[in-house]
Amino acid sequence: MTETLVPQAEATATPPSKRLFIKTYGCQMNVYDSERMADVLRPLGYAVTEDVEAADFVILNTCHIREKAAEKIYSELGKMRELRDIKREAGGDLTIAVAGCVAQAEGEEIMKRQPAVDIVVGPQAYHQLPELLTRTARARGERIGADFAPDDKFDALPAARFTEGPTAFLTVQEGCDKFCTFCVVPYTRGAEWSRPLASVLEEARALAGRGVREVTLLGQNVNAYDGERPDGRKSSLAELAYALAEIPGLDRIRYTTSHPNDMSDELIAAHGDLDALMPYLHLPVQAGSDRILRLMNRKHGRQKYIDLIARIREARPDMAMSGDFIVAFPGETDREFEETLDLVRQVRYASGFAFMYSPRPGTPAAGMGRQIEPEVAKERLHRLIELLTEQQTAFNQAQAGRTLDVLFDRKGRHADCRQAVGRSPYLQSVHVDDADHLIGQIVPVEIISGQQNSLTGRLVSAEATKKEKAA
Fold first, then answer.
1. Are the C-beta atoms of residues 256 and 216 closer than 8 Å to each other?
2. pLDDT at 372
3. CA dihedral in degrees (381, 387, 389, 392; nearest 10)?
4. % of the chain with per-residue pLDDT over 90
5. I need a labelling partner for 320 at 20 to 30 A (CA). Which of 96, 115, 248, 258 fits?
6. Sheet with 280-282: strands ordered across
7. Is-contact 378 354, C-beta < 8 A?
8. 260, 301 Cβ separation under 8 angstroms
9. What is the pLDDT of residue 439?
10. Do 313 and 352 contact (CB within 8 A), yes or no?
């Protein structure tokens, strides 16, 4: 589980009267949601702070994917209660809210277990935060907002977004209809729903106008996107990508997370047609055994996935693949785990994420028999991570000697070297000295070396770039 703090918004002429601290757990969609929560609260005088002790309002934006997610939140809430007690003794106060998927799944149980919580709001209802906050301040009214109405949510969000840097997340699709037996998302995020095409394009244009050069389109099944067009027809993710590529200043498009069954011919072709559509695709498979895939209710087989990768690479030969994997699913045999390792070897991933299966209450897999012993699960996870790490390192090392366009998005740790850090087309971190003046720009970089988690490069002169292109 990752934890992220929402960045400080740009300064305003009038100093804010209240401070908002948001702690974000989990996926990129939660990062986007946290940014939008800050947006809806900004008109109430709240400015984001990274100092929880200075906050007047704390929001824990939760994720339900990882093991014991709810228990970790309750532990954090205990700390928030202690902080509120200290602030009250000093004559202040602190409002505490739980948002996100744990809020959706646990509902009123959160407030029963931890009375210090003032507000519980699910991922489709955070646009109600100003109203819920006002009601809480008045010590009356309903404090729980956990419905499934994404269209209402996006209609209610402020048009303006406060972003920092040249990259931004952009949610285009929410929910899931796949019902994988291990996953809680259909129960916490609701059914699949797509934002209207015009709404997405409007937000993207506004982001480009604020200097954003790269957007990452987000969705639980983002390639299932079917947003309505102004004429009432449905628009696919491929059509959305073509439309985004026409926006001046928006040079890079990414999307995550995808399902193999929604990878259409049109979307595959778009990867070959659009320079703006980056050659990096996160396409989870979860397992390499057909029997385990059926138990997971993935609705695709091993060979279909492998053939799909081949078609994608035919359209875009330099495509870097990423995936998700679950080891020790109930009943998985040693031979079936070996099939997962074999699939990984065939696909050759540039990066990957592997997890041990852990039961999620309310999901079908939680009630399956033949749960795998922890010692066996840990050994399998270790072997899979070792293989994925080997492939990632090899992919990064293979970039040495190449010249890649890098979008610099932040300063590096080595200020004395004027270091800057950016992203390659393949989503690798690239560290370059004497480049801190290039933040926000896409610049050719010669890759000197590749490590497990990053690349090291140096700036390329314009003349050298011309010679390389000519060659």
1. yes
2. 94
3. -140
4. 63
5. 248
6. 280-282, 320-327, 351-356
7. no
8. no
9. 96
10. no
